[in-house]
Specification:
The protein has 315 residues and is of the alpha/beta class. Helices cover 33% and strands 16% of the residues. The protein has a five-stranded mixed β-sheet with strand order 3-2-1-4-8. The longest helix is centred in the middle third of the chain and has 17 residues.
Length: 315
């Protein structure tokens, strides 16, 4: 499967959580989940992170072929959709009817391979993920075409899960359950349990592998997710693609360090200091449920300072 200069696309998941119409559409589905922590269902605040992420990509990865922005009937006001490298994809066009409307990223990510004209080699990003220095395609895909799979090392993961659930009787967040469900499925199928967790930044995939996992290997389990309009107990996180690739020796595991990937919680000042100290290749500016408007204003100022020049993707 050796490749030379593959076409590599970039897919963003984006939602404007400040949109009152979107919030109103989501509310009836949240009412059914009130018994869970509402932290799992907070609004996705729009701080224009996507604008700055695109600026980082234009500066540090100009070789990206096309950029697909997967969204729910929304469009950033500043985005120049006449740019031939940009394509807005409405999630309603790739999800099954029974899944609509969908506010569950775990489910949406099971259908990325259905994006029309998506390249075989692609990168997936959230809007709050950024490049911090120049990268080549080889940072995402090896010479044989298989993806470089970046994970955070988490030793004793199953033991920690047991302690939290059985000893301390603390409920797991929906996101954690989706990750654990993915790991358990791969363990049952391949006899391998992967402790590593997503590094929460841009990841690389093969479209054909995603299709095979979702439509063949774990078709029944993913079919059972299709009615999960919001995050649910039986969700399966997309890390399952990476775990299967590792189990089948169709990917290369690389545990990240702070020199390579840093996950910043925008309300934590020390995280900004950490980012400056390590100067990683990738970083994420995560607006959590613990952040307030002051933290978000600081983020906007910081991003504009870090990426001040408009990209070709802006009006």
């Amino acid at each position: 499967m050796k490749i030379d200069n593959p076409s590599i696309d970039l897919v963003y998941l984006w939602v404007d959580g400040n949109d009152s119409k979107w919030l109103e559409k989501r509310e009836p589905f949240l009412e059914k989940k009130r018994t869970n922590s509402l932290k799992n269902f907070r609004s996705y605040f729009n701080n224009d992170e996507l604008k700055y992420s695109l600026r980082s990509v234009e500066r540090y990865a100009p070789w990206v072929r096309k950029i697909f922005i997967l969204t729910d009937n929304q469009k950033p006001k500043w985005l120049d959709i006449s740019n031939p490298r940009i394509k807005i994809i409405n999630q309603n066009d790739i999800l099954p009817r029974k899944s609509l409307p969908c506010f569950n990223s775990n489910l949406i990510e099971q259908f990325l391979h259905k994006i029309p004209n998506l390249s075989e080699h692609f990168i997936l990003s959230n809007d709050d993920m950024f490049l911090n220095k120049t990268v080549l395609p080889t940072i995402f895909f090896a010479a044989d075409g298989f993806p470089i799979i970046r994970l955070n090392r988490k030793r004793f993961r199953k033991f920690r899960w047991f302690l939290r659930e059985k000893i301390f009787k603390k409920p797991h967040k929906m996101y954690s359950k989706a990750l654990f469900n993915a790991a358990e499925l791969v363990k049952d199928k391949f006899g391998l349990f992967y402790n590593g967790l997503p590094h929460h930044n841009m990841d690389s995939y093969l479209k054909s592998d995603c299709m095979r996992v979702s439509e063949k290997i774990f078709k029944n389990e993913i079919d059972n997710m299709k009615i999960n309009h919001v995050r649910s107990e039986n969700d399966i996180q997309r890390v399952i693609y990476s775990y299967v690739a590792l189990a089948e020796k169709r990917g290369y595991l690389q545990y990240v360090s702070d020199n390579e990937s840093i996950h910043v919680h925008i309300q934590k000042e020390r995280h900004y200091d950490k980012l400056k100290k390590f100067n990683p290749t990738f970083f994420c500016m995560n607006d959590t449920e613990y952040a307030d408007d002051k933290d978000r204003m600081k983020l906007k100022v910081w991003l504009n300072s870090r990426f001040p020049e408009k990209s070709e993707f802006e009006k």
